[in-house]
Specification:
The protein has one domain. The chain is mainly α. It is built from ten helices and no strands.
């Protein structure tokens, strides 16, 4: 796909979802988060199992890692997890959600989460891509051609040629290194707090279910 075609595709996608855009803004996502919590509270009959906890923790760690590279300036973030996927924060959120559902062994909730997440965040990402194209222009189009949108490529995961290409997209060497100060400014710690709250919540609910009879 040429950069001109990619630009037209991003613009067309953004226009096609304009009616849906208002519906899935912050309030809708917050409401769905509360619905998710209520469903967890009604279904967490067993203590969380390790594989699900691990997936959720990886999601929180991904969000923390990405926050150390996210700068709101004139160059796109290309370091760390941004060199593998264009939306590591959203991917981290997804892993935290399905990890928690896995932890309580609620496979129906896990499946529903995947469908709902795709239906909401796919369009949110398309909308953001259109905005980033306007902000970063040619650099962002080059970035899109190098890095997949949501799931990383299995192989080749990384190469010297890709590293050099990303350096052309954003030549600031400091932007390719993790910044703990920047992570704190972006409130990266909230990812771990949310992870801990989710696991403690489902553990507490399971305890109450087991000791209420």
């Amino acid at each position: 796909m040429t950069q001109y075609t990619l630009m037209n595709t991003l613009t067309a996608n953004s226009q096609n979802i304009s009616w849906y855009r208002g519906f899935i803004q912050g309030k809708t996502r917050i409401t769905l988060a509360w619905v998710f919590a209520v469903v967890l509270g009604l279904t967490a009959r067993e203590y969380p199992i390790f594989p699900g906890i691990l997936v959720s923790f990886i999601g929180a760690s991904l969000r923390f890692w990405a926050s150390g590279y996210l700068r709101k300036d004139t160059r796109p973030a290309v370091g760390g997890p941004y060199s593998y996927v264009r939306n590591p924060l959203y991917l981290g959120t997804y892993l935290m959600a399905i990890g928690t559902a896995w932890a309580v062994q609620n496979w129906v909730l896990l499946s529903i989460l995947s469908v709902v997440f795709a239906g909401i965040y796919h369009y949110i990402i398309l909308d953001e891509e259109a905005k980033l194209k306007v902000i970063f222009k040619e650099a962002y189009l080059q970035y899109c051609a190098l890095v997949p949108r949501f799931f990383p490529r299995i192989w080749p995961l990384f190469s010297s040629s890709k590293r050099e290409a990303l350096a052309q997209v954003n030549p600031e060497s400091s932007h390719h290194r993790f910044s703990f100060t920047l992570a704190l400014e972006n409130k990266a710690y909230e990812a771990y707090l949310t992870f801990a709250a989710l696991i403690l919540f489902v553990s507490g609910v399971a305890y109450l279910w087991k000791h209420s009879s």
